[in-house]
Specification:
eight-stranded antiparallel sheet; seven-stranded antiparallel sheet; 3 domains; about 600 residues; Rossmann fold; binds 6-O-phosphono-alpha-D-glucopyranose; alpha/beta
Length: about 600
Amino acid sequence: MCGIVGYIGNKNAYPILIKGLQRLEYRGYDSAGVALLNGQVNVYKKKGKVSDLEDYITGQDIRGTIGIGHTRWATHGEPSDVNAHPHTSQNGTFTIIHNGIIENYSNLKNSLTEQGYSFVSETDTEVLANLIEYIYRTQETNAEIAVRIALSKVVGAYGLVIICNEEKDKIIAARKSSPLVIGLGDDEYFLASDATPIVEYTDRVIYLNNDDVAIIKKDELILKTIKNDILEPNVQKLDLGLSEIEKNGFDHFMLKEIFEQPRSIRDTFRGRLNAEKNEIRLGGLYHVYDQLVNAKRIIILACGTSWHAGLVGEYLFEDLARIQVEVDYASEFRYRNPVISEEDIVIAISQSGETADTLAAIQLAKEAGATVLGICNVVGSSISRETHAGVYTHAGPEIGVASTKAFTAQVTVLTMMAMMIAREKQLISVEKFTGLIKELEDIPEKIGKILENNDQFSDIAKIYKDATNALYLGRGVSYPVALEGALKLKEISYIHAEGYPAAEMKHGPIALIDENMPVVVIAIKDSSYDKIVSNIQEVKARNGIVIAIVTEGDDTIEKMVDHVIAIPETDPSLVSLLSTIPLQLIAYYIAVMRGCNVDQPRNLAKSVTVE
Ligand code: G6P
């Protein structure tokens, strides 16, 4: 949440900052702002999108080869011009941008008020700007030391970039729990919350670690800890192409990412499946392999769509690998008193690898002695670094706020893990194992077939775009798919939607069914097929409208329902990879037809770095 960018070098900073903010807008779009250092610091900020900021800046002084920029997802203080970042300290010495939360800001604010400071915004960030300035003035020290002392008094999370009006040759950056990447150019440095604003300028990056402070001049970078211990920067090569973060002709990132799924799933299993050798190789798990295979219990922790992938994982691990699984929201897990043992395997699933609750839950599990594995999409992200071992999904950057290709890539990894354990424990025969590998290899092509029939999804969307409620039902592994379908619809189209286990419908939701309520039923041919057919009949008996996702060739359900969407046949363990696709597309087209901002739905952000 909140995107931050910075530049120091010989070029004009403004275009680099604006482009960077556009790339990071998925992290928050309540307001945007930039500060440019050109003899003096000029700050421009505006409620709304980056485009509103650009309109506002037109005709103003945008010179400066040092600058910082911010796009905000509001935590403290409503979205407004005054609460927008950057924030400047009372006497104008420090201007800062911040991603995260200063938890003890209220105490700090009271102390600063007693020292004569007053505040123009309601933000915790302005408190930090004034704290740094107060230390700088009262302790007669330099900017770097003032920043480090201030940060030692702060409780909370921050990705922070600071410029000082009295030390005009540098940018100071710091990180704790909120991500920050530095790109290394020739006599120039780029800073950003993730690598997407940096990729077109350089492929050499440094990911800051917690408690790192960077003092950056255009031709020098010094990395140290808050406590002043000098650190050796770990320069990494960025594995990201520019085309991966552009729309490439699609109307929205979400649509592009839905259509990328044949490719992203293939990239996720590429080099890891070997049908000839009867092998699945997940290199990131080698040193925990025995623990994983012999685990008595797996705890899966995640948020949002990643949590739904975790629920699919529960079916897979229990069914194929016969390991007991608990799936928990990271936010609930961390505030219970969960029973964790040293034998437990904890799997944290996160597209961004930065979700604050998931990170905190990982910490808790590690402290209790569990072995923690990560399934992350973003390479080098905090979760991928905090976990003992893990598997990257290789879905490529996901920019649409509603997660699509990350979900199917996560399910692909969970499937490979469950199959690998099942084979190692000889719970499935070689024939079944190789059959599953072949089926998994065929999934991209089968998704391609679903995507070819794209028109049927927009036709259905046209009919139901004005619905006010929708119900999604599934049984077994299709239940998390129902949850995911409902989440997609509600988050991008603002239609209230609920996902339910089909059998539970009788315990409440059935009361909602009438002739206006679309009920999406995932009714593929598996062991609960007959039961789901009964559930469909129960809906139809109450005049409900049924849109059924069925297995190709099913002519029983076709006669009973209003719309059928046929998906190719596959092994029941893999079917969620196919049945999810129509639900993504129906939600997408409904949202487009309702005029919603599909890629940046209201109030949401892609990377939730505050709890
Ligand atoms: C936000 C995003 C969702 C995502 C969830 C968890 O709510 O909008 O798309 O599923 O965070 O994020 P993670 O990066 O941990 O998967």
